Amino acid sequence: xxxxxxxxxxxxxxxxxxxxxxxxxxxxxxxxxxxxxxxxxxxxxxxxxxxxxxxxxxxxxxxxxxxxxxxxxxxxxxxxxxxxxxxxxxxxxxxxxxxxxxxxxxxxxxxxxxxxxxxxxxxxxxxxxxxxxxxxxxxxxxxxxxxxxxxxxxxxxxxxxxxxxxxxxxxxxxxxxxxxxxxxxxxxxxxxxxxxxxxxxxxxxxxxxxxxxxxxxxxxxxxxxxxxxxxxxxxxxxxxxxxxxxxxxxxxxxxxxxxxxxxxxxxxxxxxxxxxxxxxxxxxxxxxxxxxxxxxxxxxxxxxxxxxxxxxxxxxxxxxxxxxxxxxxxxxxxxxxxxxxxxxxxxxxxxxxxxxxxxxxxxxxxxxxxxxxxxxxxxxxxxxxxxxxxxxxxxxx
Length: 397
Hints:
It catalyses: ATP + protein L-histidine = ADP + protein N-phospho-L-histidine. By secondary structure, the chain is an alpha+beta fold.
């Protein structure tokens, strides 16, 4: 029996339901009593399927010495070999294979895959002569060999698809575990830090200690934003996008005003101007829109000029909600513009600043999840302006 190196080939042929019928048809067409599918390499001849009525002695997995077979030569020239009576044949009457195995009739057709790889042969043998002169015999066996090759190619594609599917399922399982573990393992110690800061604040009035506690609280707030950004990045890139739950919201304007107030409190040196005029009944995820605005505001504070105001406008226009944010300062470099809404784009473009460079990516993903867009323009005269648009249903009073 052959070793495990060829067990997959034997299994592949045995899994082709048509092979037993093909071998039976080969015997019927040729009148020969032994038919087989053989795997032929540069070192081995292995029977993968056998239909034996002469007790030749081969079973699936059985081997012949490669050099003792004609298939060794067929593997090199990849042409059929056919003779009906070896003892009178001008070439094969002196060939070692018929003499070794006592053969009179022989037919062997190469099995070649679509990529040109030689798999082996479809062959038939007998110890008595056979009439193999009819051209239809060779043509029919060639079609049988092609059918086997097609099935082998199909099997390979199916196996590759199964592997990809299994990998995708495993990746999905690991993705969910990663997001869950990331959220728990990062949020839990951060909550402990915040609670500790609150507790310390109630137990001291010393100014230096209060300043340190405030620094801890501000740092934990920034850390919280980073954690949420990382989680959203994981959901967006490893999952099906950042999830949103769109409902009819009557107080989006109030939500955006509160978001602006929180950023103002965290950045007392920044100057803000806002004009908010939004209707009730906006179809959106208010918390996600708040996050979008918070990320845009944070970006403007970090990269804009502190000497000029950051201008926020939010309004309805042609059945859309428009949120625009403009700041002055150094224009965004042209090299960075194509990367601006990609994750970690700041480091890729050689920019330096706080954060991981996820804020604009997440803002863009939130706009996309609302069937909207986030666009940017940046010039020295007009400043840098981000404009988010998304469709909304209105419930006018």
